[in-house]
Design brief:
alpha+beta, 2-enoyl-CoA Hydratase, Chain A, domain 1, three-stranded mixed β-sheet, 3 helices, 34% helix, elongated
């Protein structure tokens, strides 16, 4: 699919790895689309069993949604510092 999501199958198990360690695997819109697409592909693949492991590269599974991207994509620039501070709490 992409470099954001890595897929490896080993017999009946499919391992899906979030691969944005530089962003602590924060869920960007691209990562969410890649993950959803990967899960749909595995779901419809008759060669794989239902067993799926979701893992992540780097020191964190996921930091949540990529708030910096939300501000940029909305056309308003970065989110206000108060929003970013609240998100870190």
């Amino acid at each position: 699919m992409s470099d954001n999501v890595l897929v490896k199958s080993d017999g009946p198990i499919t391992r899906i790895t979030l691969n944005r360690p530089e962003k602590r695997n924060a869920m960007s819109l691209d990562l969410m689309a890649d993950l959803t697409g990967t899960l749909e592909a595995v779901r419809h693949d008759d060669d794989h069993a239902v067993s799926v492991v979701i893992a992540a590269s780097g020191p964190a599974f996921s930091a949540g949604h990529d708030l910096g991207e939300m501000g940029i994509r909305s056309g308003r620039g970065r989110l206000p510092p108060a929003v970013l501070t609240a998100a870190r709490c």
